[in-house]
Amino acid sequence: MYGCAIIGSGAAGVSAALTLKALNVSFIWFGSRALSQKIRSAENIANYPGLANVSGAEMSRAFSAQIDGAEIQITEKTVTGIYPSVGKYTLLCGDELFEAKTVILATGVEAVKPIRGELEFLGRGVSYCATCDGALYRGKEIAVLCTQKELEREVRFLASLARKVYLIPLYKNVEITEPNVETVKGMPLEIQGKERAERLVFRDSALEIDGVFLLKAAAPPSAMFSGLETEGGHIRVNRDMQTNMKGIFAAGDCTGKPYQYAKAAGEGNVAAHSVYHFLQ
Amino acid sequence: MYGCAIIGSGAAGVSAALTLKALNVSFIWFGSRALSQKIRSAENIANYPGLANVSGAEMSRAFSAQIDGAEIQITEKTVTGIYPSVGKYTLLCGDELFEAKTVILATGVEAVKPIRGELEFLGRGVSYCATCDGALYRGKEIAVLCTQKELEREVRFLASLARKVYLIPLYKNVEITEPNVETVKGMPLEIQGKERAERLVFRDSALEIDGVFLLKAAAPPSAMFSGLETEGGHIRVNRDMQTNMKGIFAAGDCTGKPYQYAKAAGEGNVAAHSVYHFLQ
Fold first, then answer.
1. Which residues have CB under 8 Å from A24's CB, separation 6+?
2. What ipTM describes this predicted complex?
């Protein structure tokens, strides 16, 4: 049982992890060892105090080196569900379970808005996690929306199972060469179906499918668990970064604008201190 | 007339200045070119994202270089009063006036708590500003509580005017050699008097004086202007860093715990964005 589970590895997650470490709180950190794609792709960051006019890649390298120096581990798993129990939360990553007394949501704001039908068919043909649900689609036809190049290994994994994969890449330099993968251009507008997802609809066309994988850096918090208060698409928090749910804190872009690295880092720090006080 | 006046040059002030600059808002920044003494004297900062295990001196150098690179000026004056007028605020620095449409208070938390009587006798024998009020004490006997070495030049200035200066230094390596300055040990507990300050009381002794100068990095916001809502000694703000007064924002340690550089930098960033939206 961990004192805390941090979900997300952008500036807020990095800050929360460094501070929990400094406060000697045990934690597990779900994210990407490549950290946030959004940071890495920023051209120039002019107003982050301490790092003058860095590129996103430089900031990301500075964060990585600092995390390694502090001997902090990142667990590269996608949290697909969070369930409350007495005095703790259970986090589901595919078929693996983890337990933590508190959670810090630092999931960022998806550049990709949810598609119509996405939450409706979640668990009924829609999945965020290739390793969790891939086996369900052995020999079937699936659509895979992939938001970043780092997730191509999950596309390959799905291609090894499914008969046919329609890949909708939202990044450049696609390097998938599996013969059963067909790249599709355009952004899907809606997932349709009766009991389960059956059709992925584009502006002028549609794909008949058995399932849809949405490979994102993080599942939207509203999909991870229910009951979390939001406001205008952001998680509602107070000045201590506490959400409406006891023991669940949030930090960074997911709590609202401005979408700024300094704000995210500050909120990650505050959330970590709130976790510390909560655990006392 | 400036779009904004920032008061304080710790991490929150630095962050606010960098962000206002990036947002192209005109501003005047009151603080110390040596930045925050608190930062400079920190031994090791382990959890500021992007700067791994830096000393306070290193962080301060990084901030300074970044400010210089962004061509941002610091005005080394002490704001002693803030007065509202229609659509703007007037800031008093001794006998100089400045005007700004908004204010960001980033004054930090005084390591030195106010002494009993300090606010009561402010302007009646108690002053925060040597250059503002020194001339009133020509030929008189004064006590000078000095919180940091950088302010010794103000002590010397006062010694050039007053007949006798009782210096209470709260720092090491005092280098004041003026013959009319007598160093006093201990921390004063109370300022007493009838109409005006007359006596500075210590645990086992008292000094009869004509005035008391309290030389701090920043005057407490409650002394600068009235009407500001506080809570437990901190300025009350919402998630946008807005205080209860329209156009007045606050950021950093002065808004509450945790007293952390990342939090301060994040809040300075948010306050700057709020100023930007306020001015639209």
1. none
2. 0.76
Helices and strands (H, E) in chain A, number of each type = 7, 16
> What is the rounded CA–CA span in Å between residue A272 and residue A133?
32
pLDDT, residue B77, reads 86
State the average pLDDT over residues A245-268.
95
Among B19, B46, B49, beta carbon nearest to A47: B19
Q: How confident is the model at residue A193 (pLDDT cuts 50, 70, 90)?
A: very high
Q: Which residues of chain B have pLDDT under 70?
A: 111-112, 218
Which chain B residues touch A if contact means CB-CB below 8 Å? 11, 14-15, 18-19, 21-22, 46-53, 59, 62-63, 65-66, 69-70, 237-239, 256-258, 260, 262-270, 273
Q: Contact A50/B52, CB-based, under 8 Å?
A: no
Cβ-proximal residues to B6 (8 Å cutoff; 6+ apart), any chain: B13, B16, B17, B20, B27, B28, B29, B30, B31, B103, B104, B106
* Interatomic CA distance for residues A256 and A252, integer angstroms: 7
**Which domains are assigned to chain A?**
2-110+218-279 (3.50.50.60), 126-215 (3.50.50.60)
For B74-98, the pLDDT digits (tens) are: 999 888 889 888 899 999 887 789 9
CB atoms within 10 A of CB A224: 22
What residues in chain A have their Cβ under 8 A from chain B's Cβ atoms? 11, 14-15, 18-19, 21-22, 46-53, 59, 62-63, 65-66, 69-70, 237-239, 256-258, 260, 262-270, 273
Give the distance from CA A66 to its chain's centroid: 22
State which H helix or E strand residue B7 sits in: strand B2-7
What pLDDT does residue B78 have?
A: 83
Q: Above 60 in pLDDT, residue A111? A: no
What is the pTM for the complete model shown?
Answer: 0.79
Task: Inspect the interface and report whether the beta carbons of A52 and B69 lie closer than 8 Å.
Answer: yes
How near does any CA of chain A get to the CA of B265, in Å?
6
Number of Cβ within 10 Å of residue B233's Cβ equals 13
